């Protein structure tokens, strides 16, 4: 249904405001295999959903 990329710390608002991505959802808190994270879901140029996920404990 989507792919997930773990990213370095981002200024989420800058990503959203850049206009480079079509944002579907986020930033939203999520929990996964590595613990709590913040995610933004965007569409790539082909219309695929990509989750950009940041784990604060990795900072």
UniProtKB/TrEMBL annotation:
Alphabetical list of InterPro entries matching this protein: Glyas_Bleomycin-R_OHBP_Dase
Protein name: VOC family virulence protein
Organism: Streptomyces sp. SID7499
